[in-house]
């Protein structure tokens, strides 16, 4: 099958496509039966190792069987991508589901792009391909973003370029990882939407976050209703914030006078009944002796 036809059918996102272009081997190997790096080759399924950096190992069994049946009938529409470990050994970069389904379909040979990539590029490619899957939940995306930042040493701006998202979108996903585990699990399992979670995260107090989460589950609250509850909660917190205590000018004057006398910052605390305390700080034994001398102790 012609290379041009295969390339039209690739569904790579901008970030993964750029990575693959960066890692492509420019020199092609000619000759009968030889694999050509950077082109599409038919390679033995048995010669392909799984990707050790694959971030997702849980695949829907029914969907995998449906894909295997499709491959039995039509073959593989989109080639997998591998890197060459030796002349006859390869390691998967992307296309884990297609490879697993091909094995179930009984294929001995599969079409593949052969690239060169180091371990970090392998991890980055696997993570980006994982992010570009349509059925990922928000927590899976957030965890992949976090791994790209920490393990691939990317900045948020670089990450946005890699996955084709702006920095705000990336940051909104990363903030989800600050939510309590119960809320993250509900988001992962589809019991809570991204909109609900984004509203909850605007509350700083974890107990209040969990209270609203339980209310959402129990009453089936809409995202708009949750946003309203959060606004009311935040606004109420501002209104009920304790006012700063009034400073007695006589106390302030005395505090300044004592500070000047002792040569160190004196603190005086007193309530409305004139009960309180005076604090005289010191940093070493010499300063303590100096203060005691001034006190005639």
UniProtKB/TrEMBL annotation:
Gene Ontology CC annotations of this record: chromosome
- Does the UniProt entry include the keyword DNA-binding? yes
Q: Which UniProt keywords apply?
A: Chromosome partition, DNA-binding
The GO terms this record gives for MF are: DNA binding
Q: Which Pfam families match?
A: HTH_ParB, ParB_C, ParB_N
Q: Domain ParB-like N-terminal spans what residues?
A: 41-131
Highest taxon of the source?
Bacteria
What CDD domains does the database record attribute to this sequence? Answer: SPO0J_N
Q: Might you name a Gene Ontology BP term for this protein?
A: chromosome segregation
Q: Which family does it belong to?
A: Belongs to the ParB family.
Protein name per the record: ParB family chromosome partitioning protein
Q: Which organism is it from?
A: Marinoscillum furvescens DSM 4134
Question: Which taxonomic lineage does the organism of this UniProt entry have?
Answer: Bacteria, Pseudomonadati, Bacteroidota, Cytophagia, Cytophagales
């Amino acid at each position: 099958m012609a290379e041009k036809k295969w390339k039209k059918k690739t569904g790579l996102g901008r970030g993964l496509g750029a990575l693959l272009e960066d890692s492509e081997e420019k020199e092609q190997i000619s000759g009968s039966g030889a694999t050509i790096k950077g082109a599409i080759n038919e390679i033995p399924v048995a010669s392909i190792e799984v990707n050790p950096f694959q971030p997702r190992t849980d695949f829907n069994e029914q969907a995998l069987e449906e894909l295997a049946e499709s491959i039995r009938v039509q073959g593989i529409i989109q080639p997998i991508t591998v890197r060459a470990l030796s002349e006859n050994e390869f390691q998967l970069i992307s296309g884990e589901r297609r490879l697993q389904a091909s094995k179930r379909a009984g294929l001995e040979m599969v079409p593949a792009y052969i690239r060169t990539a180091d371990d970090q590029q392998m991890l980055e490619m696997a993570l980006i391909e994982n992010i570009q899957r349509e059925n990922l939940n928000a927590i899976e995306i957030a965890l992949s973003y976090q791994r790209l930042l920490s393990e691939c040493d990317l900045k948020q701006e670089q990450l946005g370029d890699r996955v084709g998202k702006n920095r705000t979108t990336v940051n909104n996903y990363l903030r989800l990882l600050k939510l309590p585990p119960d809320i993250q699990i509900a988001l992962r399992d589809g019991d809570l939407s991204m909109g609900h979670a984004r509203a909850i995260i605007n509350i700083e107090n974890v107990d209040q976050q969990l209270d609203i989460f339980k209310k959402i589950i129990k009453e089936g609250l809409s995202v708009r209703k949750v946003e309203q509850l959060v606004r009311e909660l935040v606004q109420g917190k501002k209104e009920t914030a304790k006012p700063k205590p009034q400073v007695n000018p006589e106390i302030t004057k005395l505090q300044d006078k004592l500070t000047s006398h002792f040569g160190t910052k004196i603190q005086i605390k007193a309530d409305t009944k004139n009960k309180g305390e005076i604090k005289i700080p010191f940093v070493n034994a010499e300063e303590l002796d100096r203060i005691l001398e001034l006190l005639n102790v």
